[in-house]
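Hi there,

I know you've been waiting on this one. I reran it after we fixed the sequence typo, so this is the corrected version. Both the input and the resulting structure follow.
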Amino acid sequence: MNRSKKISCFTVIIALLFSSLSTVVFASDTWTTLTNLSSARYSHCSAVIGDKIYTIGGYNGSSKFNIIDEYDVNQKVWKRKANMPLACSNASCAVYDGKIYVFGGVNTSPMNDLQVYDPATDTWTKKTNMPTPRYGADSVELNGKIYVIGGYTSVNGNLDNVEVYDPINDKWTTKQSMPTKRRYLKAIVFDNKIYAIGGLNSAALNTIEEYNPDTNTWTTKAGMIVPRYGFGAGIINNKIYIFGGKSSSNVLNNVEYFDPISNNSTQKESVITAKFLFTCEVINNIAYIIGGYNGTKALNTFEAYDYREDNWAKKMPMKAARQAPASTQYESKIYVSGGNNGSIVNSVEVYDPVTNNWSTSLSMPTAKYCHAMVTVDGKIYSIGGLNGSALKKVEVYDPIKNAWETKSDMPTARYNISAVVLNKKIYVLGGTTGSVTVNTLEVYDTENNIWSKRTGMPTARLGLDAVELNGKIYAIGGKGTDNTNVV
């Protein structure tokens, strides 16, 4: 069923937006550059405790680090903390009971060391080593145990190993191996399961595999849109967001999210700086992207991705400014017609959300504004409107033939109307004749090119909106003798 939303002369916000040549769409992604790290680095690990982010170890192209820096999200400042006992890069970190556990990594060779940092005392301790030396693994805490997954060792190459550390008893156990061997993957916990995402084997992977600790089994899920490794990931609004990384050939700045519930991935707003081998931490639905490597040098950049439900993103403006046009959808594109920009226009523009571009379509036979547009069976109907006086014209555009034709006039000339499609019929509600605000309801049968009158609305009004839901039409708001909240 085709549905469209009409734009009226009295929809002030829309008129202002269009008359200023701006097009805005609802969005949920913004990026902010924050205070840089004290030193450029990549292949470090990071962790969050409370409202502080800890970034640990790493590499700057010449030296392995044992440094740890603490970022206060509220104060927006970095502080240097006590050095780690053993310098390393490509370690993995996890948090348990207010402490940060740092697993393995590489210095001159792959390591199996377990180093533990206590922020409360700013001190380090050593715990029982991992069974398998490795770097490029990832680690996550789930139900009081820490899972170290995948990685690389000089003896066995890429690993599918899953080793589990019990912090209370300082003991290790081995679990079912991943189906896919890899390093530089990300492991994310969602709904009591672990998702092993992407990574590098002989090439970048888009693989997503789900581990169920209750059954000790793995399940293969739908893959990412873009294969990648060395990326960042975190949970935002119950989805796994995946940032940057590297494909088999290119450093990436794109972002996608994986929805574990629907088992599919969606493309999102790009990272500011293309990079990989960085870390990502999420606090209060804000993802912090820390350091990394851009293919030529280590970075000290620090960026924040803010997912909110009240942000707007500016898109490509229309070719022509226009107030009170009408719009409808056809085959995932938006058709905008008519309007007033100081003179009344008949031009039609088409917006493609995929390419973020406007193109010009064949103009309407009649210049108008404050009209209605709807789509029925692949054809676009332009109804009523204003051009010096109220119009009753019905003009129909066929996108396949790129041609307009005129149909039977609407019985009542009017503008600031609303139109809704139900069962291949167009219901036109309310509006004004120019002298009288009306409650008129007239119905156009698109198959037989016939109009009929139906019982008018209880309240006469113009500039209203109307929608169809479950076979009923809801007339909402508008202006009668006064602005109305009537539905």
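Quick highlight: DSSP finds one helix and 42 strands in the chain.

Best,
R. S.
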